Recover the amino acids of this structure.
């Protein structure tokens, strides 16, 4: 620790602290953008104008929203379980943010920084069981909803929480099955290996695993509680579901966590099925390494954005499922299809 | 990660196991009793992993997996039973369900 | 011979099974089936007999019956001179009685059951005489005992019949107990139970010093089955059964099983003079003793029953003194005339609406002629009037008895006199004199149907001429003939005869004894004539004069009462004591106390079962702590 | 104090605190949430024990599935807070503490015998045995039979749970349920 540079190096590079902070903040910013994006897309789909008053084309609308949320009165209803009520939005936000930790958004590159030759990994944590980590953390997303629903001490919230727990458990299964197929093809649980495994366009898992892709995609909708699977917060039935009793920044936290979930899910779809940060044929161009890296990160962003767009597109296009339909789809279609996919993939891996 | 003595984990396991026992004995709610049993199982898991590390033997990990499987199966069946009992008796308190003592 | 002899016992068994299973459907046909089954057996028996006559005998195993460790009992049959004679008697007389029973039992409500028992009896009896080993003998022995029990108690709704059946069974058990032990002794000593095996190894019994014991034990069984003193008490009571049963089982066949057994084991008994002596003493005593009881009895069937016991005594005298052929000869002739007597008695009862008291009969001769005539022939035969069959056989026994010891002859002769007297009394009171029949009954007196009289006639023929096959040698010498029966049975008793060396009497003495027999018989008949026809001597006055003797005889020497008082009552008293004190107080008490203790402990222990899962769990944890503690600190 | 030690003590306190919460909190939902906390802390301990794979599976299975199921059932049955424990329950409460102490002393003594007594206290070591490869190899070679049996067990449990919940237990017969309840109460009063 002889110099500030060394200290900085230690903090930034060795612990990954800076990288983590950067990623989290980036995520929050992206969430902000997404709120606007959603409103714009919905307006576009519904042939409306959407927000256009704050700033040019309304691009400052998220900031205005933020200010509004912060300045609103933070109402804590008297009948709620205070501790759970307050902790629920945080519990909800936490898994959405930490999941992103293992998603690789670019290849690694070695640069000289402060006289240190460092390898920069465009990924917060490159753990060798990354995909399992995702499955594990993703399953925690339900706690925010359950705790919020129960802590609100309100029957609508409670039903929302109940529905979400059932829904989460149900759709984790096909999701896991789809992931298993991918893992079988790549032979590794490390996300980076999964990405590099899809080096050419045809090697993208969307082509090798079309069924798995559909299953994963549908399950991702359910896991993020997006339409057509947003039963936990179905307005017509449950008022607002688990966040009925929330207001102000706590409500906002739920919103942020929902959008964070979308981002994480989209990036996962991109990583697992669309080749992640890979651009097929990029290596042939022999670009400078920094340019190559930036292009790859850009490719990742583009892919993820596209998936996010599909999320929104679907939301404003499809009606909501009924609860029994949701369960039937989950247990009677998705799970058997997922099992079939696993068996087929295993056969292919074993015999070809 | 060389600074933690193995027996710390064992003692932590012992404490958790004891807590589980206390829960099983004192609680009336069958579901909570169930959770206490899970606590005990996890205490055992911790012990297994500690010994596995100490002996540098993978069998501890295998055992932990088996325990998890058993725990999952147990929870599935156990909760189904509790739900069935609730549907029949409208209670999950074990002191209301003591038909053997009639 | 092997190809058909197994059919002989099988046919009655089949008949028994058919009648037993479908008797209630067959009803009247049951008797037909049973009779045909026995007839087939009889015909095959005749065939077997003819082959034996030609000198062909058979002794071999048909199949393995029981195999347990080193012990093996085969289903083996032995057809020799002795068993072929027995087979003829059993199936022949049996067939006639079956035919007779068709008429006698007509209209009974469970004929099927009756004929099933009868067939089963014939099967068992045939097994008894045909088997080539002790186990089959025992099987037949117990089988006939069972059938006897079942048939005595055939009218099971009559308490006296049920009681009589039980009595027969229990008394027989006493004898069978000894018999079984005798078999065990023979088996443990020799290791085989086949006749041929025992015959070859009989020396080992002698050297082991158990020959007398074994013989006496076997004779104990014979005593029970053949109603010898003191195990005779069941036979008079057995008259509760239907009359054909009395004829078949308690006169002609089953009761002679003992005689057959002793004859069969002649080679064994000949080794033990003691046993022979015991047989002679018991036989003599029974012959005389039973005859005296017959003197005063008024029940037609009971008189015949005592007569049977007495005649069995004569047979035992015969086999006891070593005149086996004579014993078996008497067995055969007795089967003829005693079966005839019983059937005749049955016919009389049939005519008189089941009246059995001879004091309420009389002057029946004119009304039921066939019955009366055949009955008279049997009477002459049993009394020993030449040339009827009984004369030859009884005379032969008495002659041999004289050779053994004159005293035996003397008692036998007295018995013969009494026999002639009481049989004459029976006949005179029944068929002659003035009628004492109930006027109401008298109107309905009728001769029995053909199906009953024809067997009577056949048996009468046999009773008359049956004796001619065994004309004594010294008589046959007159025209150069021989005693066919003796010669025929010679091979069976050769071994025993060789050892015993029967004393030969001079011809003069033999003629003298024969004459004495005839005179004795005639004397007995004359005395009865004086008393019951001429009324020269008033029997009632005689009874009043010797009141003590009369009542003693009338009450059968108080034997039943004596057994009740001396044997049964102590047992009953002791049983009551065991029941009320040992069983109820001590054994039940112990059980109750243990139950009480369990209950007391339970009162405490059941508090442990609270129904609270947690309590159980905590006990479990305590257990864990204890086990851990033991493991840690020991 | 090294980072690992800090983490150990942090997780240990979380685990024990969560465990105590499970046992003492009268509200079953809170109990369940405390248990989730304990599970997270235990996952942390597993990581410290170099068992990354087990740690993540633990999170996925226990926190992700089992505890969600618990919460689901608790909410489904609308289980109320436990009333104050009275009578025998009070005694059981103190008795359980005795049992706890006894068990802890004994189990702790095991640790003492095995480790305190040793001259060099064994420390957690860097090891490769917790990796997916190692565990996978072991599971699919030496322990393939137990692995398959475990799958059968899960299948059986699934069918059993389905069967139990499919049964018609007089649902929709409130009168009968009320009768049963009445009978139970009468029994209680008789006691």
């Amino acid at each position: 620790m002889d110099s500030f540079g060394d200290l900085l190096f230690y903090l930034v590079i060795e612990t990954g602290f800076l990288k983590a902070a950067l990623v989290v903040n980036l995520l929050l910013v992206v969430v902000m953008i997404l709120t606007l994006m959603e409103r714009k897309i919905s307006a576009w789909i519904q042939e409306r104008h959407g927000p256009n008053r704050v700033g040019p084309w309304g691009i400052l609308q998220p900031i205005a929203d933020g200010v509004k949320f912060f300045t609103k009165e933070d109402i804590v209803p008297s009948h709620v379980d205070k501790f759970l009520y307050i902790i629920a939005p945080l519990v909800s936000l936490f898994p959405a943010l930490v999941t992103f930790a293992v998603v690789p958004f670019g290849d690694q590159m070695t640069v000289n920084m402060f006289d240190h030759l460092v390898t920069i990994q465009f990924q917060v944590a490159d753990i060798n069981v990354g995909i399992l980590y995702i499955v594990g953390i993703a399953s925690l997303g339900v706690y925010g909803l359950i705790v919020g629903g129960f802590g609100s001490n309100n029957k609508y919230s409670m039903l929302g929480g109940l529905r979400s727990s059932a829904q989460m458990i149900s759709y984790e299964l096909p999701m896991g099955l789809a992931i298993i197929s991918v893992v079988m093809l790549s032979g590794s649980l490390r996300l980076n290996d999964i990405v590099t495994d899809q080096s050419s366009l045809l090697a993208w898992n969307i082509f090798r695993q079309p069924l798995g892709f559909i299953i994963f995609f549908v399950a991702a909708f359910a896991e993020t509680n997006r339409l057509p699977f947003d039963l936990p917060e179905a307005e017509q039935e449950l008022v607002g579901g688990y966040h009925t009793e929330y207001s102000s920044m706590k409500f906002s936290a739920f919103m942020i966590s929902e959008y964070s979930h979308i981002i994480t899910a989209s990036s996962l779809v991109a990583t697992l099925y669309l080749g992640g940060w890979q651009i097929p044929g990029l290596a042939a161009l022999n670009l400078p390494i920094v340019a190559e890296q930036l292009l790859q990160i850009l490719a990742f962003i583009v892919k993820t954005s596209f998936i996010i767009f599909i999320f929104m597109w679907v939301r404003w296009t499809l009606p909501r499922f009924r609860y029994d339909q949701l369960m039937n789809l989950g247990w009677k279609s998705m799970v058997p299809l997922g099992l079939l996919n696993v068996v087929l993939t295993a056969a292919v891996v074993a015999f070809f | 990660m060389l600074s933690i003595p193995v027996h710390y984990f064992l003692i932590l396991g012992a404490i958790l196991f004891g807590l589980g026992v206390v829960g099983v004995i004192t609680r009336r709610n069958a579901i909570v009793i169930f959770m206490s049993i899970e606590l005990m199982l996890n205490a055992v898991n911790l012990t297994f992993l500690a010994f596995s590390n100490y002996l540098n033997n993978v069998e501890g990990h295998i055992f932990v997996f088996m325990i998890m499987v058993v725990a999952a199966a147990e929870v599935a069946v156990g909760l189904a039973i509790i739900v069935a009992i609730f549907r029949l008796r409208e209670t999950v308190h074990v002191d209301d369900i003591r038909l053997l003592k009639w | 011979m092997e190809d058909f002899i197994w059919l002989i016992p099988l046919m009655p068994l089949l008949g028994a099974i058919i009648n037993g299973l479908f008797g209630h459907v067959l009803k009247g046909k049951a008797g037909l089936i049973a009779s045909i089954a026995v007839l087939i057996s009889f015909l095959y028996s005749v065939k077997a007999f003819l082959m034996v006559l030609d000198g062909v005998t058979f002794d071999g195993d048909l199949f393995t019956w029981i195999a347990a460790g080193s012990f093996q009992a085969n289903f083996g049959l032995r057809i020799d001179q002795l068993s072929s004679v027995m087979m003829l008697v059993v199936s022949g007389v049996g067939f006639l009685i079956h035919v007779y029973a068709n008429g006698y039992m007509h209209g009974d409500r469970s004929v099927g059951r009756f004929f099933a028992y009868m067939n089963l009896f014939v099967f068992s009896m045939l097994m008894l005489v045909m088997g080539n080993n002790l186990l089959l003998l025992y099987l037949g022995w117990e089988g006939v005992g069972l059938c006897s029990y079942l048939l005595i108690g055939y009218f099971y709704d009559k308490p006296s019949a049920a009681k009589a059946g039980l009595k027969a069974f229990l008394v027989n058990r006493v004898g069978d107990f000894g018999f079984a032990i005798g078999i065990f002794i023979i088996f443990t000593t020799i290791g085989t139970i086949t006749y041929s095996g025992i015959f070859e190894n009989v020396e080992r019994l002698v050297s082991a010093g158990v020959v007398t014991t074994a013989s006496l034990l076997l004779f104990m069984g014979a005593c029970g089955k053949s109603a010898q003193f003191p195990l005779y008490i069941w036979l008079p009571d057995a008259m509760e059964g239907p009359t054909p049963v009395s004829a078949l089982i308690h006169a002609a066949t089953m009761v002679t099983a003992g005689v057959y057994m002793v004859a069969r084991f002649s080679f064994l008994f000949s080794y033990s003079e003691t046993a022979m002596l015991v047989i002679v003493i018991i036989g003599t005593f029974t012959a005389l003793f039973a005859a005296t009881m017959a003197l005063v009895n008024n029940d037609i069937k009971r008189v015949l029953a005592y007569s049977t016991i007495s005649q069995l005594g004569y047979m035992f005298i015969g086999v006891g003194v070593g005149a086996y052929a004579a014993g078996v000869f008497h067995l055969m002739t007795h089967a003829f005339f005693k079966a005839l007597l019983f059937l005749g008695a049955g016919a009389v009862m049939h005519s008189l609406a089941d009246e059995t008291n001879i004091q309420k009969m009389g002057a029946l001769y004119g009304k039921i002629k066939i019955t009366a005539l055949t009955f008279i022939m049997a009477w002459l035969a049993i009394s020993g009037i030449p040339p009827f069959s009984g004369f030859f056989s009884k005379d032969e026994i008495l002659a041999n008895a004289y050779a053994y010891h004159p005293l035996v002859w003397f008692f036998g002769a007295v018995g013969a006199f009494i026999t002639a007297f009481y049989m004459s009394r029976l006949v005179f009171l029944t068929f002659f004199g003035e009628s004492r029949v109930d006027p109401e009954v008298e109107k309905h007196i009728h001769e029995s149907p053909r199906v009953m009289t024809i067997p009577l006639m056949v048996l009468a023929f046999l009773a008359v001429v049956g004796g001619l096959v065994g004309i004594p040698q010294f008589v046959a010498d007159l025209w150069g003939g021989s005693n066919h029966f003796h010669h025929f049975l010679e091979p069976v008793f050769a071994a025993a005869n060789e050892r015993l060396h029967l004393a030969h009497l001079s011809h003069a003495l033999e003629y003298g004894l024969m004459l004495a027999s005839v005179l004795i018989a005639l004397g007995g008949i004359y005395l009865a004539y004086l008393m019951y026809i001429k009324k020269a001597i008033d029997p009632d006055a005689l009874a009043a004069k010797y009141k003590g003797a009369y009542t003693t005889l009338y009450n059968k020497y108080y034997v039943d009462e004596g057994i009740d008082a001396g044997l049964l009552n102590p047992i009953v008293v002791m049983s009551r004591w065991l029941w009320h004190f040992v069983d109820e107080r001590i054994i039940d008490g112990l059980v109750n106390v243990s139950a009480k203790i369990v209950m007391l402990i339970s009162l405490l222990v059941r508090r442990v079962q609270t129904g609270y899962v947690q309590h159980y769990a905590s006990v479990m944890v305590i257990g864990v702590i204890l086990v851990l503690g033991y493991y840690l600190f020991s | 104090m090294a980072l690992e030690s800090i983490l150990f003590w942090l997780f240990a306190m979380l685990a024990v605190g969560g465990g105590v919460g499970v046992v003492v909190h009268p509200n079953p939902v809170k109990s369940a949430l405390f248990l989730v906390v304990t599970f997270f802390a235990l996952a942390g301990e597993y990581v410290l024990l170099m068992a990354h794979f087990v740690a993540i599976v633990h999170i996925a299975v226990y926190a992700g599935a089992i505890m969600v199921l618990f919460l689901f059932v608790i909410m489904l049955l609308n289980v109320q807070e436990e009333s104050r424990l009275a009578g025998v329950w009070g005694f059981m409460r103190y008795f359980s503490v005795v049992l706890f102490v006894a068990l802890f002393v004994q189990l702790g003594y095991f640790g003492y015998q095995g480790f305190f007594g040793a001259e060099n206290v064994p420390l957690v070591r860097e090891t490769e045995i917790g990796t997916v490869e190692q565990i996978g190899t072991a599971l699919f070679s030496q322990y393939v039979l137990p692995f398959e049996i475990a799958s059968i067990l899960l299948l059986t449990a699934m069918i059993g749970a389905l069967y139990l919940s499919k049964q018609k237990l007089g649902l929709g017969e409130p009168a009968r349920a009320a009768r049963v309840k009445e009978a139970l109460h009468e029994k209680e009063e008789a006691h």
Remarks:
- Residues 59-89 of chain B form the longest helix (31 residues).
- Chain B touches chain D through 78 residues (CB under 8 Å).
- Chain B has a mean pLDDT of 83.
- The two ends of chain B are 57 Å apart (CA to CA).
